[in-house]
């Protein structure tokens, strides 16, 4: 595509009208043009042209891939924020959210560009890569913007030209290639070659010119022969000659080929309606013109990773010359030329073009998934960008799965890289590999077009693989596997350590893990969950002592302080005289902590090996299953006071502590400790009291229930 130095909006609109017919959409584009024209008025490009010529050209380039109205409008407006100080809000008000966000996206990409230092370049490239995941249309506008800048770069110094060309080949043409936007990609490459290697470029142009008449004639003859042949067989088709890209010729020369040896300079393309006709046409052509061995490629059955489909063959044609022939349907042609942008030409009323494009990228474009994967695991922008360039964009090879799917890998990749690229679960279980029917070692270097089959029966990957895998993706996944395995191990270990330490320090786990306490503790130690804390303990990044110390530092709440002053100081051990076990003398007896029985409660004993007998309330759920160890016990009559726990639920906003304490005093009950649990919609006080017996306790509970704001009172049963 040539630079349109004298472009007018009228000529642009004419091209647009060839595929956009909706009046509303055309009016929107006109409005965008008028706005941009007004804003850029008086500004000039370095070429001396009016500035508006640049956005007009960018939009013009985008018509070659049939860009939609939003994208064209955004292309016309793409420099008004940066060059004219227009606010994004104003664009949104006038042109809507979609266009505003496209313009904003392009502005952000251009803003950091070429400030010269390498950090800015890296950051900009990262933005381009990440931008793919947001709205690929921004990147497509960027490609067109760059193409027009290259077209007018003759005004800049050779250094600047080379710098821009290098950066374009570094990242933008590979993106255009992977997105399948062939037409823009070829133009970009050609301009880059012209600036980077002017001698080679003009040498090729000259040679092509010198042979042009001859080649045109040869192609014309061959088209005639092919048309005759296909017509005779009743295949409806069109045939066109096609010129090879200068850049692809340069690549071949660069690999050591001589110009006269490049045999696919004569090239034509056949368009048919259906896939079946592609194969029919191919068969008919091969029956008349012998194919050159090993030159046939079936990209219909096995599409390229950028969705490209066609049949390629090279045949000995008229006059014994070699011709490269491509056969494809019209639909395949759209994808071959526009790639991801072909959605524009399939656009249906009301369809969401952006969503369709993003969806296609995610589902169909390997490079996109790889980039997103790397983005998620690599935080350092320089490493991320360099890895994408080295492993995704340059020096790639294409290998096949046994089903014929194409997998894109960097040069030097091994079967393990392949396995992880297919799926991480395949990678993790890889035990062997068969390449082209031969068993190969796992560090085998794969080559273009290898067919790779992975044998999976291992349970886990091997750390040894890290020594030879090529892709960062595989490395990350192997490391992630071992980190995860370690995590599980450390989690278990850490939990054991903590439980032991709690026992050692006689801290009840109920108290320790109580909601409020856990929250404070985790916050103080800067963990989000006990899982994290266990992992830190298990991997020795944290000591158990530090956890206990932090636990002991938890300061009592305000209410607790009030209580501290008034609570009874006595902490008595109750004696065995409290409980009698009929038929047994001299046995150690404890009152169970879970249900805290008090005299007059119906009770039962439970024989604990080495600890004597623990006494529970008969309704305590903890004794239900333990019948064969149960033993009958009875209360002795004593004046000893016994601790028990009650739970008082009250309204959230009320403070019932003082009332509770005064009721306790009235009933001659000692409050010995107190815990406040604030829940979402209520407050629960856990009260430990010393009481004479059940009668006294019940009276106390009844009196508590009379207090306003108290919802319920019950004895605790853990
Ligand atoms: Mn621009």
Categorize the overall geometry. Answer: elongated
Rg over C-alpha atoms, rounded to the nearest angstrom: 40 Å
Instruction: Catalogue the unreliable spans.
Output: 557-563, 565-575
What is the strand tally? Answer: 20
- Determine the CATH superfamily of the largest domain: Hypothetical protein af1432
Helical proportion, percent range: 40-55%
The percent range for strand residues is: 15-25%
The structure class reads alpha+beta
Distance between the termini: 81 Å
- Lateral strand order in the biggest sheet: 1-2-5-4-3
Can you give a write-up of this model?
The radius of gyration is 40 Å and the shape is elongated. Helix 9 runs antiparallel to helix 10, helix 10 (158-178) runs antiparallel to helix 11 and helix 12 crosses helix 13 (246-254). The protein folds into 6 domains: 9-196, Hypothetical protein af1432 (Orthogonal Bundle); 211-342, Beta Polymerase, domain 2; 395-470, Ubiquitin-like (UB roll) (Roll); 480-555, no CATH class; 561-635, no CATH class; 642-715, ACT domain (Alpha-Beta Plaits). The N and C termini lie far apart (81 Å). Strands 1-2-5-4-3 form a 5-stranded mixed beta sheet. It has 29 helices and 20 strands. Helices cover 51% and strands 15% of the residues. It is of the alpha+beta class. The longest helix is centred in the N-terminal third of the chain and has 35 residues, at 198-232. Bound molecules: manganese (II) ion.
